[in-house]
Write a structure and sequence with these properties.
Elements: H1 3-20, H2 30-47, E1 51-58, E2 61-72, E3 77-78, E4 85-86, H3 92-104, H4 129-133, H5 158-165, H6 182-196, H7 200-212, E5 218-219, E6 233-234, E7 242-243, E8 258-260, H8 262-274, H9 280-287, E9 305-309, E10 312-321, E11 324-331, E12 336-342, H10 349-362, H11 367-384, H12 395-400, H13 403-414, E13 419-430, E14 433-442, E15 446-453, E16 459-466
Helix pairs in contact: 1-2, 2-10, 3-6, 3-9, 5-6
């Protein structure tokens, strides 16, 4: 079968699976829902990832859930929104929440040292629980690879894993650097069990999963997913998807053990937005950026990344275990969140889908935006011919477009081929100007167009660059 035929066959299977297992988009405008459908289908085909399960929170409610593609390739089995997918390192925020909840209970402090619980580990007196949970402890990571080493196919105990990796010399002074470490989370999980007197999963079920109705959650560190759940795949270079191996028991403990539906992960996101479970104090601890000893921010809190996308705060994390990848993003102030779970490892489908959905979710559809899109498109067409309607620009904007600039822009746009699509992808305010960012897809490349408009609509800026 030729590459084109393989692509068309996969597209057909993804489309049929999407049609069969769609949920109505009651919480989203039909045009946004249709664009999400098209984007997810395209990304799955382009990346070769078999399936994705998506959930979207908007205005403090679950507005959209849908599964796309094939959860199993042989026999072909469409993905459904009731299927569970492993969430990988997104599990870390639940382990971090457990530690923070015990701190809120007064049973420990995030500033306690590891020596209070495991005194024999390397530099235990110098490492705090906060450093464990923020990847700033210096403890060596036991799983830096993007595949499953042969040694990880065999079972291991928590004690053996900690002793093997947390008795080595530290990679750096505690608090001086950020370096991702699964080992730190295994230690944190063991501390939860020692302090609470129950297993980590029992604690999480009682304090988080049961109160939130997250009934699908399961611990894949102790076994495999059910036959009715998604199957995980791996690919070698651009080869076909093949069933991925399963990690041995014990390797995922506290660092990546959870699997669930996209809907249940969205319930957790809702609880963070609404500050109910595990509570505002815990959420504040999780989302407070940890700062290094030299004053540099890490972009990480406790089990979650913290950042700004334009003028929006986003709390997020990715996840990967053998055969699966996942992306979870929460926008607290917008009361919105995006969950994408996919069944292939070492692939970019999940974050690419989440990024695309965010663009669609946060772009305003006001008449002024529609009018500006027409104006931006018209200006682009004029620039391709070396012409500019200077009545649309402020004096500063006109000053930018010198004769040399117009010549250069015309010549460079001529090389790009025909324009296939142009759309607004985000909007913000800065310096009294409305900033709009557009994506212009040409035959040969994609450009980013940034405009800044004054209150009267005249453009102070119209710049083009390769996306």
């Amino acid at each position: 079968m030729t590459k084109l035929k393989q692509r068309l066959a996969l597209l057909a299977l993804v489309f049929l699976a999407t049609i069969a297992y769609a949920q109505t988009a009651d919480g989203l405008a039909p045009e946004i829902a249709n664009e999400i459908d098209a984007a997810v289908t395209e990304i799955l085909v382009e990346t070769g990832v078999p399936s994705a399960s998506v959930a979207v929170v908007r205005e403090g409610a679950i507005a959209w859930t849908k599964a796309y593609g094939l959860a199993r390739l042989d026999p072909p089995t469409p993905a459904t929104k009731t299927m569970r997918y492993p969430i990988g390192s997104i599990s870390k925020q639940f382990t971090a929440a457990a530690v923070a909840m015990l701190a809120a209970d007064g049973k420990l402090s995030l500033d306690d040292t590891v020596a209070d619980f495991f005194p024999d580990l390397t530099r235990a007196d110098d490492i705090t629980l906060r450093q464990l949970l923020s990847h700033t402890a210096g403890i060596r990571d036991y799983w830096p690879q993007d595949y499953v080493p042969q040694t990880m196919l065999e079972p291991i105990t928590t004690e053996a894993l900690i002793n093997q990796w947390a008795r080595q010399p530290l990679d750096f002074e505690p608090g001086s650097k950020y370096q991702y470490s699964n080992t730190g989370y295994v230690i944190a999980g063991a501390i939860v069990e020692k302090v609470s007197g129950e297993s980590l999963m029992e604690f999480l079920r009682e304090r988080i999963f049961a109160p939130l109705g997250m009934d699908s959650v399961t611990d894949i560190d102790q076994g495999t997913l059910a036959p009715g759940d998604a199957t995980g795949y791996q690919r070698f270079a651009l080869g076909p998807p093949r069933p991925a191996p399963k990690e041995g028991k014990g390797w995922l403990f506290a660092a990546g053990p959870l699997a669930m539906t996209a809907v249940d992960l969205a319930k957790w996101n809702l609880s963070l937005i609404e500050d109910n479970v595990p509570g505002p104090a815990v959420f504040d601890e999780l989302t407070r950026e940890v700062v290094l000893t030299n004053g540099t921010g890490t972009g990480y809190g406790l089990g979650v990344g913290v950042a700004l996308e334009g003028d929006r705060r986003v709390v997020g994390h990715g996840g990967e275990v053998s055969g699966f990848t996942a992306t979870n993003r929460v926008y607290p102030e917008e009361r919105a969140a995006i969950v994408v779970l996919a069944n292939q490892d070492a692939a970019n489908a999940a974050p690419a889908i989440a990024k695309k959905i965010a663009e669609l979710l946060f772009v305003s559809a006001s008449p002024s935006d529609a009018e500006m899109l027409v104006r931006v498109s018209g200006i682009l067409n004029g620039l391709k011919k070396g012409r500019l309607d200077r009545s649309l620009f402020t004096p500063n904007g006109n000053g930018y477009f010198s004769e040399a600039a117009l010549v250069d822009i015309k010549a460079s746009l001529k090389r790009l081929g025909s324009l296939k699509e142009i759309k607004q992808i985000r909007q913000s305010l800065r310096g009294g100007l409305t900033t709009r960012v557009y994506r212009a897809v040409f035959k040969k490349t994609t450009l980013e167009i940034v405009t800044r408009a004054a209150a009267d609509g005249k453009l102070e800026q119209y710049t083009l660059s390769v996306e």
